[in-house]
């Protein structure tokens, strides 16, 4: 009997190119493997003890003799390599129609509608790295008060403003306006507030980022669990990714360590259902910034805290460590990479040393969680509960 599942997403921690990676512009990508190569190796004793290094085809971490958990990797059915797509598939949806992207910037009619509604002109309107575009346009923004609008290879409409030039409330209002415009034919996966502070040449982004997602197009694992009367606790940006759907309680955390703290706090509380955590620093602070050394340290810092997480678990708790896409910091550009995700499952009720092989869809995780909690499933994905549960 399983009472609670912790679904722990290490954002962007991919483990090697998917068979179709080339169609996404990704050749030879391997977030974990290439970080290990570039930095002289990864020290992840706790994840390795659970079986991370035993996963088929994994590079950069070593296998142990008798891993304490079940382990595997998964292919992605959905047509995309962004956070929304990855998380929706993890929760049991297949995103076969990719979200709109804007490699040439947003069309004139979109920009003019936005400018008219917010009462300001905009700067930028092109794909860019969020830190590079501040260096380029931050000063002009401070002089004119025009928000910086930019996108990336992801399906995103991002608005960057200096917190002392445009108050946060106004930025959030702008995002709501953009969210209304970017629907229908221009359904973008996310509108994102990207506030920053500081002086010219030394701008830094603040934790007041906010994501405005589309509603999931179908019922997810979260909705099903909530309807069944279970707790669905969202830690980090999970609440945003599902636009609040199926979430019963949420906490937004400022960094990976705070996300781990919150997960442990919730594990110590009396709840039943799903604790769904996203640790985004791997992606936002190191993957997109192509900082392999920083990424390595973030991974090792997380690994050091795994014993604390496991100690907070009770006999009816199960934890699943996984990811949503890759973001190889050694690869060209600054975008995500199309990769396998790792799956490591651990708990008193779970058999150790079980190889789950290569799963066909991230949705297998949703199906397995449904099965473990004895609730309905979304109809996508195949449960591997029978392989992992102790008799
Ligand atoms: O370069 P920054 O602004 O961090 O952008 C990254 O963060 C956004 C959301 O994931 C995507 O656009 C991605 O490219
Ligand atoms: Mn992500
Ligand atoms: Mn990202």
TrEMBL record:
Its EC number is 5.4.2.7. Its main location: cytoplasm. Keywords: Cytoplasm, Isomerase, Manganese, Metal-binding. Its cofactor is Mn(2+). It is found in: Cytoplasm. One of its GO terms (molecular function) is phosphopentomutase activity. Mn(2+) 1 binds at residues 11, 324-325. The keyword Isomerase applies. Mn(2+) 2 binds at residues 283, 288, 336. Pathway: Carbohydrate degradation; 2-deoxy-D-ribose 1-phosphate degradation; D-glyceraldehyde 3-phosphate and acetaldehyde from 2-deoxy-alpha-D-ribose 1-phosphate: step 1/2. It comes from the Bacteria. The keyword Metal-binding applies. Residues 4-376 form the Metalloenzyme domain. It catalyses: alpha-D-ribose 1-phosphate = D-ribose 5-phosphate; 2-deoxy-alpha-D-ribose 1-phosphate = 2-deoxy-D-ribose 5-phosphate. Binds 2 manganese ions. It holds the Pfam family Metalloenzyme. Belongs to the phosphopentomutase family. NCBIfam families: deoB, PRK05362.1. Isomerase that catalyzes the conversion of deoxy-ribose 1-phosphate (dRib-1-P) and ribose 1-phosphate (Rib-1-P) to deoxy-ribose 5-phosphate (dRib-5-P) and ribose 5-phosphate (Rib-5-P), respectively. This is Phosphopentomutase. The lineage of its organism: Bacteria, Bacillati, Bacillota, Clostridia, Peptostreptococcales.
């Amino acid at each position: 009997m399983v009472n609670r599942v912790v679904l722990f997403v290490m954002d962007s921690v991919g483990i090697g190119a998917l068979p179709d990676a080339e169609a996404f512009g990704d050749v030879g990508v391997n977030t974990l493997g290439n970080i290990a190569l570039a930095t002289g190796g990864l020290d992840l004793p706790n994840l390795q003890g659970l079986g991370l290094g035993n996963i088929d085809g994994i590079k950069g971490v070593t296998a142990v003799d008798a891993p304490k958990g079940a382990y595997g990797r998964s292919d992605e059915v959905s047509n995309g390599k962004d956070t929304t797509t990855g998380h929706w598939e993890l929760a049991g949806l297949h995103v076969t129609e990719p979200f709109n992207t804007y490699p040439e910037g947003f069309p004139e009619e979109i920009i003019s509608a936005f400018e008219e509604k917010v009462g300001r002109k905009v700067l930028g309107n092109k794909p860019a790295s969020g830190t590079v575009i501040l260096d380029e346009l931050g000063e002009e923004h401070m002089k004119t008060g025009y928000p910086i609008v930019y996108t990336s290879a992801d399906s995103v409409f991002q608005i960057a403003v200096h917190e002392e030039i445009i108050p946060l409330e106004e930025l959030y209002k702008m995002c709501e306006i953009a969210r209304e415009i970017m629907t229908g034919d221009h359904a973008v996966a996310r509108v994102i507030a990207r506030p920053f502070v500081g002086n010219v040449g030394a701008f830094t982004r603040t934790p007041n980022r906010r994501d405005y997602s589309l509603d999931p197009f179908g019922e997810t694992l979260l909705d099903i669990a909530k309807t069944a009367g279970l707790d669905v606790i969202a830690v980090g940006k999970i609440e945003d990714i599902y636009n609040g759907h199926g979430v019963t309680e949420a906490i937004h955390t400022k960094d990976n360590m705070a996300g781990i703290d919150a997960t442990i706090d919730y594990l110590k509380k009396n709840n039943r259902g799903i604790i769904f955590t996203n640790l985004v620093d791997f992606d936002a602070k190191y993957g997109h910034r192509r900082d392999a050394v920083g990424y390595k340290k973030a991974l090792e810092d997380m690994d050091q805290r795994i014993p604390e997480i496991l100690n907070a678990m009770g006999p009816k708790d199960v934890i699943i460590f996984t990811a949503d896409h890759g973001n190889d910091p050694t690869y060209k550009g600054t975008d995500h990479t199309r990769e396998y995700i790792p799956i490591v499952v651990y708990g008193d009720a779970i058999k150790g040393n079980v190889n789950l092989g290569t799963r066909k869809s991230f949705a297998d995780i949703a199906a397995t969680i449904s099965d473990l909690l004895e609730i309905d499933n979304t109809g996508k994905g195949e449960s591997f509960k029978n392989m992992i549960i102790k008799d």
